[in-house]
TrEMBL record:
<dbReference type="InterPro" id="IPR006311">
    <property type="entry name" value="TAT_signal"/>
</dbReference>
<dbReference type="GO" id="GO:0008199">
    <property type="term" value="F:ferric iron binding"/>
</dbReference>
<dbReference type="InterPro" id="IPR000627">
    <property type="entry name" value="Intradiol_dOase_C"/>
</dbReference>
<dbReference type="Pfam" id="PF00775">
    <property type="entry name" value="Dioxygenase_C"/>
</dbReference>
<feature type="domain" description="Intradiol ring-cleavage dioxygenases">
    <location>
        <begin position="98"/>
        <end position="196"/>
    </location>
</feature>
<dbReference type="GO" id="GO:0016702">
    <property type="term" value="F:oxidoreductase activity, acting on single donors with incorporation of molecular oxygen, incorporation of two atoms of oxygen"/>
</dbReference>
<feature type="region of interest" description="Disordered">
    <location>
        <begin position="68"/>
        <end position="104"/>
    </location>
</feature>
<feature type="region of interest" description="Disordered">
    <location>
        <begin position="290"/>
        <end position="315"/>
    </location>
</feature>
<protein>
    <submittedName>
        <fullName>Protocatechuate 3,4-dioxygenase beta subunit</fullName>
    </submittedName>
</protein>
<dbReference type="InterPro" id="IPR015889">
    <property type="entry name" value="Intradiol_dOase_core"/>
</dbReference>
<feature type="compositionally biased region" description="Gly residues">
    <location>
        <begin position="296"/>
        <end position="307"/>
    </location>
</feature>
<feature type="compositionally biased region" description="Low complexity">
    <location>
        <begin position="68"/>
        <end position="81"/>
    </location>
</feature>
């Protein structure tokens, strides 16, 4: 009979393999499905939990030890199911709603903290975020060679190329090509939280670099959710004025994008702190046997932005 895992006591409360328990007074096996699929499970951990509700978790080894964390944390393993198709939002910068940064020379880059021409730099808490793209049609093999375009708002909740005064700015946008492990990595800053949306990072997956010429070529369009504890810590800083209040008014369950399942397969695993910076990782399972159902940009409108002005709307 398998041994029931024991939680570890931390200053924030009981945790299992680095993940705080959703229900601190219950055993690890009684935390529920959302906790199961978010937990940093190893292959041995899944075997130990066999028969108690995590049989649907499909494993994929993901990332090496994070150099920013003394705890030696690893990235989350792949949860069952394709990454959900989500809206690209009103500010994709991929040509589907006005500006097209994918046509700019220099867009293939890992450091997206500055504009491509170096004329502007985004402020905020340092963040490295990494995606590992897996090919579901090929038994979850690393999807080497796919091009991943990622973009997100600034610490002030504004989007380059669209927000007032940032029309000629191209920071917080970039493309990377997946390596032999299916991984891409970006150096950036932690995104702010604007009104009506949970903090997030947008991304599109293209079959290859040549496919970037048309946003309709994307084989997946989705968003990565930032974990609440790290977000709350970041938003205590002065560069993120208004984000803490906006975060307090939304949950993963109420968010218009992540609400279907509270971002179960989109919630990043994160290490680090607000002083030294963070590293966020996410496994992205893409099924090329199904058609991508997102990517179109809705019309702009609505309210958003930490200050409650006419900044980015939900999307």
């Amino acid at each position: 009979m398998s041994r029931v895992p024991e939680p570890t006591q931390t200053p924030e409360g009981p945790a299992y393999e680095g993940r705080l328990l959703d229900h601190p007074h219950e055993e690890v096996v009684d935390q529920g499905a959302p906790f199961d699929i978010r937990t940093l499970l190893t292959r041995r951990g899944v075997l130990g939990l066999a028969g108690i509700g995590v049989g649907a978790v499909v494993l994929a080894a993901c990332a090496p030890t994070d150099p920013t964390s003394g705890a030696g944390a690893t990235a989350s393993t792949a949860a069952g199911g394709e990454i959900p198709d989500e809206t690209a939002g009103p500010y994709p910068g991929d040509g589907s709603n006005g500006p097209d940064v994918l046509e700019d020379s220099g867009i293939i880059r890992s450091d997206i903290t500055t504009s491509i021409d170096g004329s502007a730099t985004a402020d905020g808490v340092p963040l490295i975020f990494e995606f590992q793209v897996l090919d579901m049609a090929n038994e979850d093999a690393p999807f080497e060679g796919v091009a991943v375009y990622a973009w997100h708002c600034s610490a002030q909740g504004e989007y380059s190329m669209y927000s007032a005064g940032l029309e000629d700015v191209t920071y917080l946008r970039g493309v990377q090509v997946a390596d032999a492990q299916g991984k891409v990595s970006f150096t950036s800053v932690f995104p702010g939280c604007y009104s009506g949306r949970w903090p997030h990072i947008h991304f599109e997956v293209y079959p290859d670099v040549d496919s970037l010429s048309d946003s309709a070529n994307a084989i997946a369009t989705s968003q990565m959710a930032m974990p609440e504890p790290a977000s709350a810590e970041v938003y205590a800083g002065s560069a993120y004025a208004g984000s803490a209040q906006n975060l307090a008014q939304v949950t993963l369950a109420s968010d218009s994008v992540f609400g279907d399942d509270s971002g179960a397969t989109q919630l990043a695993t994160i290490t680090g702190d607000a002083s030294s910076g963070y590293k966020a990782t996410l496994v992205v399972r893409v099924d090329t046997s199904t058609a991508s159902g997102a990517g179109s940009a809705p019309g702009s409108g609505g309210q958003g932005g930490p200050a409650g002005s006419s900044r980015p709307p939900a999307g």
